[in-house]
Amino acid sequence: MELQNDLLLRAAKGEEVERTPVWLMRQAGRILPEYRAIRNSLSGFIELAQTPELASEVTIQPVDILGVDAAIIFSDILVIPEAMGLPYEMVEKRGPWFPNTVKTASDLDKLRIADGANDLDYVIKAIEITKKNLNGRVPLIGFAGAPWTIFAYMIEGSGSKTFSKARAMLYTEPALSHRLLEMITQSTINYLKAQISAGADLVQVFDSWAGILGPDQYEEFSLKYIRLICEAIDEVPKTVFAKGAFFARKDMGSLPCETIGLDWNMEIKESRALIGSNKTLQGNLDPAALYGTADQVVAATQKMMKQFIGSRHIANLGHGVYPDINPERVKDFIQAVKSFS
Ligand code: 1CP
């Protein structure tokens, strides 16, 4: 199916574009009343994610309602631990929770490498339905968590400010840590390849907890595995978003991927200098900027856009859009990107 709007893919590959493409991380499951209406008619996130027709419907809502240049499949990074044998629950207002975690080698022996197409068939079905219903309007983004971020949840058992149990494991059990990271990496490669076979046009790897490691540990326990994923996938363009990994920007310039995501703490010109000119940069407006007035949102967006002039860029926020943002301000952000010249 020929895409009518392939700005995202051309920008990712560094090809000529008429204007900068724009989408928002976490655009599908947070801000729209139309999303909440569907979500509230079900038992919760997991039921919605595992019902492909509905997952597809909420994936397409931001394309219809907000006018973004890409859809991102409605799912979560935590489907991978579940497919490996470590199920999660979503606790209302608190986030993910794992009844079991990995503490010892025998916990690890109970896990398996996920086969994306079978173990995560509900995501694959949702992608197939979404591709059909998008009918070529915009590209569909597939995604997965980076191995380090997934590891952090599998050890910790929930979200955390410090992930101290996960970081302790890197010091006390480095060999066990690497074994688990290798299993997550292989599962993630299988999963992303299945998403691509089902129709994902680009894939993004989210390393949301990159910033809690120091530079040496980041290279050893995270970047190494992200590199393996990028090397294994050559079917579609790849984006790596490592939140807080300002110290790794130079190394990320040599990853075999097309696009690097920037968070809002990363200075744009400095990031370009560190990463080099042969990558597209994605981002990086502070998500809190959308709490401002319409005029403030437009001014902040234009200020960001100016700093990216003359270099490969996909406009986005510096992290996921916050749940209590007014969708009208999101539209102001999108319109400000589209009319920027
Ligand atoms: O929002 C969308 O666009 C839909 C798809 C999507 C994506 C891309 C969801 C649905 N989750 C994610 C990615 C995700 N999930 C990340 C990486 C991006 C980021 O850093 O924001 C992370 C770290 C998670 C883990 C997760 N899932 C958290 C964070 C917990 C913590 O440690 O702070 C939470 C709260 C969830 C739940 C979740 N995921 C998605 C939704 C819609 C929800 C809310 C659940 C509900 O409705 O009850």
Automatic annotation (TrEMBL):
Record keywords: Cytoplasm, Decarboxylase, Lyase, Porphyrin biosynthesis
Keyword Lyase: yes
Location of this chain's protein in the cell: Cytoplasm
Chain ranges of the Uroporphyrinogen decarboxylase (URO-D) domain: 21-30, 141-157
Gene behind this protein: hemE
Group of enzyme by EC: lyase
Molecular function GO labels: uroporphyrinogen decarboxylase activity
The organism's taxonomic lineage, starting at the top: Bacteria, Pseudomonadati, Bacteroidota, Cytophagia, Cytophagales
Transition state stabilizer (site feature) positions: 76
EC number(s) recorded for this UniProt protein: 4.1.1.37
Matching Pfam families: URO-D
Pathway annotation: Porphyrin-containing compound metabolism; protoporphyrin-IX biosynthesis; coproporphyrinogen-III from 5-aminolevulinate: step 4/4
Name used for this protein in its record: Uroporphyrinogen decarboxylase
Gene3D superfamilies in the record: 3.20.20.210
Presence of the UniProt keyword Disulfide bond in the record: no
Residue numbers binding substrate: 26-30, 76, 153, 208, 319
Reaction(s) catalysed by this chain's protein: uroporphyrinogen III + 4 H(+) = coproporphyrinogen III + 4 CO2
UniProt subunit comment: Homodimer.
Record InterPro entries: UROD/MetE-like_sf (IPR038071), Uroporphyrinogen_deCO2ase_HemE (IPR006361), Uroporphyrinogen_deCOase (IPR000257)
SUPFAM superfamilies: UROD/MetE-like (SSF51726)
Known role: Catalyzes the decarboxylation of four acetate groups of uroporphyrinogen-III to yield coproporphyrinogen-III.
Family: Belongs to the uroporphyrinogen decarboxylase family.
